[in-house]
Amino acid sequence: MFTYIKKLGILFLISTLFTTSIFAQTLRQIQQERGLSDQDILAAVKTYTPTGKLDEYVVFSSGGQAGQLIVYGVPSMRILKYVGVFTPEPWQGWGFDKHSKDILAEGNLSRELTWGDTHHPALSETNGDYDGQYVFINDKANPRIAVIDLKYFETSQIVANPLFASNHGAAVVSPNTEYVAEVSQYAAPLDKKPVSLDEYEESYRGGVTYWKFDRASGKIDASKSFAVEFPPYVQDISDMGKLASNGWHFINSINTELYPGGFGPGNTEFKNKLPNEAGMSANDMDYMHVVNWQIAEKLYEDGTFTRINDFPVISIEDIVDAGGLFLVPEPKSPHGADVSPDGQYVIVSGKLDTHASVYSVEKMLNLLENKDFVGTDDYGIPILDYQKSLHRAVNLGLGPLHTQFGGGNIAYTSLYVESAIVKWDYIEGKVIEKTPIHYNVGHITAAEGDTVSPDGKYLISLNKLSLDRFVNVGPLYPQNHQLIDINDGTKKMQLIYDMPLPLGEPHYAQMIKADKLNPVSRYTEQFPNATRPGRERIERNGNEVTIYSTSIRSRFSPEVIEVKRGDRIIWHVTSLERAKDQVHGFTVNQYNVHGSLEPGETGTFEFIADEAGVFPFYCTEFCSALHLEMAGMFIVTE
Amino acid sequence: MFTYIKKLGILFLISTLFTTSIFAQTLRQIQQERGLSDQDILAAVKTYTPTGKLDEYVVFSSGGQAGQLIVYGVPSMRILKYVGVFTPEPWQGWGFDKHSKDILAEGNLSRELTWGDTHHPALSETNGDYDGQYVFINDKANPRIAVIDLKYFETSQIVANPLFASNHGAAVVSPNTEYVAEVSQYAAPLDKKPVSLDEYEESYRGGVTYWKFDRASGKIDASKSFAVEFPPYVQDISDMGKLASNGWHFINSINTELYPGGFGPGNTEFKNKLPNEAGMSANDMDYMHVVNWQIAEKLYEDGTFTRINDFPVISIEDIVDAGGLFLVPEPKSPHGADVSPDGQYVIVSGKLDTHASVYSVEKMLNLLENKDFVGTDDYGIPILDYQKSLHRAVNLGLGPLHTQFGGGNIAYTSLYVESAIVKWDYIEGKVIEKTPIHYNVGHITAAEGDTVSPDGKYLISLNKLSLDRFVNVGPLYPQNHQLIDINDGTKKMQLIYDMPLPLGEPHYAQMIKADKLNPVSRYTEQFPNATRPGRERIERNGNEVTIYSTSIRSRFSPEVIEVKRGDRIIWHVTSLERAKDQVHGFTVNQYNVHGSLEPGETGTFEFIADEAGVFPFYCTEFCSALHLEMAGMFIVTE
Description:
The structure is a homodimer.
Chain A: H1 2-20, H2 22-34, H3 38-47, E1 57-62, E2 68-74, E3 79-84, H4 98-106, E4 122-126, E5 129-139, E6 144-149, E7 154-160, E8 167-173, E9 179-184, H5 200-203, E10 206-214, E11 219-230, E12 235-240, E13 248-253, H6 276-279, E14 285-292, H7 293-301, E15 306-308, E16 311-314, H8 316-321, E17 325-331, E18 334-339, E19 345-350, E20 355-360, H9 361-369, E21 375-376, E22 382-383, H10 386-389, E23 390-395, E24 400-405, E25 410-415, E26 420-425, E27 430-436, E28 441-447, E29 456-463, E30 479-487, E31 494-501, E32 509-513, E33 537-541, E34 544-552, E35 555-557, E36 560-564, E37 568-575, E38 584-588, E39 593-597, E40 602-608, E41 613-618, E42 631-637
Parallel strand pairs in A: 11-16, 34-37, 36-42
Antiparallel strand pairs in A: 1-2, 1-32, 2-3, 4-5, 5-6, 6-7, 8-9, 9-10, 10-11, 12-13, 13-14, 14-17, 15-16, 18-19, 19-20, 20-23, 21-22, 24-25, 25-26, 26-27, 28-29, 29-30, 30-31, 33-34, 34-35, 37-40, 38-39, 38-41, 41-42
């Protein structure tokens, strides 16, 4: 009895003492007021990043149909920047100054394009590890690849694909960023001619373009790039081999039915057909394409290609003959083809199957070497036996989609239909645990997850729906990226943060250690039209007026510019600032001119002064206490 | 001695017991690993909003030169949406479908404008309280006002100012949203003609436009709107009176020097002058403009106006004669004119003065009534005595800029130069405390802060620089919005969250209770070209092809469309979805077409099929496991 009372007393003492510490008391009070669980508090403390402390990781996420690249910090899940890529964005001056207009114009196909559908960012790699120098991203709608230079966090190049009608398995890089791969999605004639869908099998084609990346210049060199022809299966997501599988490239496909589509009215040939969602999903198995870019590179260098739209294309026949292309069956409508960190396995998930297939690279290459094929497809590509290629198939759950890797044998796979992440051992083939997400996860990204040495620690679930997770902001909902603590892989997964995405639909992301990034704070390069202080001037040559101007807190020089209606204006603005974060904006009112002038930068703005009147120009970035006085007048006389 | 040992023992017990509770132990472990203070943990717990819980407040923030409206939640400080306003944004289809193109076109001045410089969002009010129905925002660069309908969180109207060359003190609303006011900034001839700066005093003018808002239609009615002429001082920030000051409108100015500018080369008349930053800051005092919109409305209704550019303008003389306009001196280069919740005081801060001036509305109106003026300015506007108008002036610190209100007599003012927020009693004139921010705060926003009944609780510091607060993402830094816990005003201010702004420079924001917002999740209105399932069709009329199509998980109907080069395409896409968050995107590859189709919506896309070839069209929003199959072919034959 005495012991019992003593125990009660100690329990009482514990709870009393805990709650009487001022900190603990305050904590419990806030907890109660806000209705938080103990688990919520631990999640808060795991993610909260107080003023003055920096995030440990940085995520580069696609912006989907917003056409931008999203950059955010982990574990705080705060968005740090939307980098302008395919869509003009005035805050950055992207698509408004001459420099960025020129880059965007390089990416125009037959018309001016003012948006893009970014899907897959790929960080540049050195020896299979992210090196923090560049990130590449694709435009699915207008097949293009952009290069973003992480010295400035700015897009430095856009290349347009001369052959494809769309892409999806892009951008992916080889382990030393020798090439940036762009895989086509919806098949179309490679010469871009109009051909009836009656001739789908004969005339439509897919393919992969290997864009040569020149690290010295930081540019893709189109003159050293080439493509490999594929059948008109609808190629999908892809991943490059590494270490044991270096040189190989693994590409899903979804339409081995060669179904040309045609549901609905309006086309006599194809009237009343099945919709694509059924017609393209009839087969139980599709084909993973396995292609070797080193063999393709050799063929290209040897001249074994034809030119289509003036671009070198290696035919299916030639790449097959050289042993550089084979097919492996994969479960219905796959979406992920993910190479393990050691390069020995490729994991494919079929969205309409509950299994993930773990392919053994060693087994596949042995089958290839021994020409142990089950046959060829209609285009003459050898097909390996599914079972013989497999390490194992594992039942993961409903709608497995994309796999990322922790350490050791641990893999994480998104389950789209089930709205969950499954953690499993891909060598032993055992499911370890599942955690629900909210809702309908597409891809996932793990810390350094696509490298040869993933960190474990954090996993992000890129969910397609947010439904009830955030305050309703109208019929177009934000997406929800959920941060999951995967620690060292030994403990249970813990969902620790819900992050709404306010703009765009991110499809894919990569997470890099923040200390691998080393951007500059100002421009030190010499701009061709830079103006030194005191050398500001206005030069007239016929009806062309060139203005060499400067900006510094808090004035433009010159402040008054008078021109005649019809004059062509070339306006250079040099920022004389050197201090970091001291940015000036520049606009000429009503002339649709805008620029962002970061320290040391010279921006150039060209337009015709086609309207008479008085037009203020001013600094659009609050730069000092006298920021509002940083303005001038552009007067256009009749 | 015994007591001493006993005390030590209890202390040991306290710390031991605290750390042995599993929760507390885990908490302390994470705290140690992440280097957090106890204060950090409390801040984390105050802001962290776990999955499934919603934010208490919603902030509407300008997006600056990004041209958008930013929506985020408090206390989590997570961005929920960037609403497309003046800048086309493809994720939302904003500026891509016919509906939004038409709205943007209404706002075009003499040319197509593809961006804006948003500064001041104003929530619609009923009896001086936010009602959650609409938000208005200005474009400073191309003087315009946008209406955003909070039923959809979409821009529903843009009106272009027919008189001004720029604006800044906009948008602000009267207490029942009778009018949305737009105050000009840089002066220019109201008829928009080119006039030399030699004639600055005679021919340049400022003004205010009162846009009549019709709540029934949710639109500004330009035909019932009017403007009041002002001298060519550079008018700035403004606030509308309420309760005791209902009908009055308080507007700062910064250039009572009437300095026309002209620093730098290139203009013989104005060569080698002072820059504006000096020329416009010579006087110790500027003028607050106090104008009465009810008196102006009466003049307008009586026909006491002239038409400039076909827009009714009330002259300075007429508004002065009617007792509807006077000036009050205010300290040098003011930036805030903020009316207290009861409408009895107006607080003005001079950026180059250390004081805030607290004006008494009662005193000013008595002076006006008694015609107790110190004189008139050169334009005949009566000027009140500064001291006689004043309740008191309070020394707040360096660079006071903008004031928001808590409860009672409590005001919060941003100190730009000092990088701090000062909390003070504006009736007693006492500084209570200051808290540092990071760095250089412009405006601030408090919970329901511009209403007749502010909530206290939260204050946000809209900082202009972030410098070292976040992982470096290149020369263009994010801004930093810092959340401050101001609780009930009785405790000390506590900085509890740093939020980077990834896109745009937010100048001003308003914070509303989340439960006042009531947006819909789908469109229930009847769209004129909506297509019912089974009624999909393609109609040709000469070379105009109209496509009536539908979208539903996971197919478009029709899936194949063949047209001839040169055909004009009108493509209606009706979403048959009804479930919330089930959105489809729509693009025709390479044709620069994009739309977002929310449940129940019909989007219309018009273009000329000017290029022959095979162009996939597809759903750009991941909508189901068979999303990739939701595609069709648009074939343009020669």
